[in-house]
Amino acid sequence: MEDYKNGKWAKQILAMRQEDGLWGNFHTLSQPVAGRSYTTEQAIRRLYFLGYTAEDPVIQTVMKRMEQCIKGEQAVDNYSEKTHDWPFFEKLMLSAWLRILDPQNEAALEVAYQWARVVEKAFSRGSYSPEDDRAAFMAWKERRPRSGFETGFGMFYHAALLPGVLSPKTEGRFLDYYLSKPDGMFYIYDKPLNQTPEAFASRATSCYLAAIEVLSRYEQAPGKLGFVVDWLYTNQEKDGRWDLGAKAKDGVYFPLSDRWDRDSRIADSTFRIRRLLAALGG
Question: Contact, 14 vs 57, CB < 8 A?
């Protein structure tokens, strides 16, 4: 992992930092575009997959700024979108990333437990109820939901925010909901997660694994995602390694190695899959 952290991809991103230790505007999870600078969110996601953690000073700088924004002490940037209650969305987004980097971050946990109360009520009848979701949201915010992220829990941010804060019954229902959603996990993968990609060696599989990696942080994930473990072993090469193929290179999850010839591509693919299997008890 140290090889990835000290490789050319990490150095390239670190060289783009601005004086405040960020990369400009925070939000966007879209794929980086060649010739354009990273957003802070793109940068920390890429660094995270290259092995950077909350122990690294560069990540600590970003985490401090995110926490200050959640607490209302300092803006994370000057960006906003008029179609949303932007400060509310920022709290969700930044808290989700803080919980990925530091699951016990107090500021992020406070936001997580607020959302958890809505989720508990939305799934209290045994499955997701839009009516109960809206009622719980209105009781919390004292207004009607105005944006898609405020109901439905279909985003990457909701899934990343809530590990460890839901009751066992609700967590199971929540995972079933994500697995069966026709449009997958917004921002990450747009097909049902209970159906594995048709072509294993593909960019679709890389994106699919990204969504499964988010869900793998839940306590009940090993029991819910056994079919993913089986699918991964079905696609294991005879030598015990995996190859996601050249098309998986997207500048987000791959490459990890400085070069991406066949050998390094297989090494990168195998590293990522073994890490997911370990999380799922496989």
Answer: no
3-state helix, strand, coil in the chain (%, to 5): 55, 0, 45
Q: Any idea what the Cα angle at residue 249 is, between residues 60 and 277, rounded to 5°?
A: 70
Closest CA to 211 of 191, 195, 189: 189
Nearest C-alpha neighbor of 38 from the set 54, 27, 53, 48: 27
* For residue 1, pLDDT beyond 50: no
| Crossing angle of helices 168-180 and 203-215, rounded to 10° | 170
Distance CA 8, CA 38 (A): 16
Q: Is the pTM of this model over 0.90?
A: yes
| Domains of the chain, residue spans | 1-79, 82-165, 196-282
| Residues 85-120: b if buried by 16+ CB within 10 A, e if exposed | beeebbbbbbbbbbbbbbeebebbbebbebbbebbb
